[in-house]
Amino acid sequence: MSVQFAQLVLNGISLGSIIALGSVGLTLTYGILRLSNFAHGDFMTLGAYATLLVNSQGINIWLSMVVGAMVTIAAFLLTEKLIWAPMRVRRATPATLIIISIGLALFLRNGIILVWGASNQRYNLPVAEALEFGSLRIPLYDLVVIGMAIAVIIGLHYVLQNTKIGKAMRAVADDLDLARVAGIKVDRVIFWTWIIAGGLTALGGSMLGLVEAVRPNMGWFLILPMFAAVILGGIGNAYGAIVGAFIIGIAQEASTYCPAGLPAWLSQLCIRNEYKLAVALVIMMLVLLVRPQGLFKGTM
After folding, report:
1. What is the pLDDT of residues 3-19, one digit of tens each?
2. Where are the domains of the chain?
């Protein structure tokens, strides 16, 4: 394996860590609420900008991330109160919900541009040199992102498998009507679903801001990879979404690998960085054609 390819794989693991957190939030909202939320990426952007706002006041970046998560969770709960709960009462169709979520995405994105402007911004962070492991150079904040993602995934696993609310969420995802008959308070499950999804989404946005510039379209550009990860892993399966996210992240970055020494005509076929998002689309299309249920069963 060449050094260049190994470097791209490491970059893909970092990207996959960010996609994983957003994808889990996306698959939870679908598995429990049957909502394909196309505004999910823009909520990720909101989390990054809320973190930026606090951090720009001289507050520690880690505390800023906590505040950013709280702001995003509040926004999720507000949209649940004003939009999604009334739509469930009216038994809105999936197509209607998708259209509403796209409108919400546009509202959030343009609101962010109105408040913060369209230019790229960065957190107030000390400059950190890349760490060297043999011939590989790994940016410090990429390692931080990977470590944070692993810690959050372990915490999520504990919540889903060992707490009452986690078991209730899995029951509602399996069969909402049966869970309601069994005495599970579905409204409470929905409330905690938004809290968990909002926290993970905001953290994913903040982590993306650590390794890239904070910009209004940052979350929107990740919505396709997130949906691809959810479909690849099995819609509604949190663990499948995590696996799918790492596959998508590594595939996107590794797809730009172009070995040295290729003939000029062949090197023209190498995928350029601006086209690597198409890899997620191709993977999603192949999964839908070959294995629509995804790699894993679509429940938590």
Report:
1. 778 888 888 999 999 99
2. 3-122+133-290
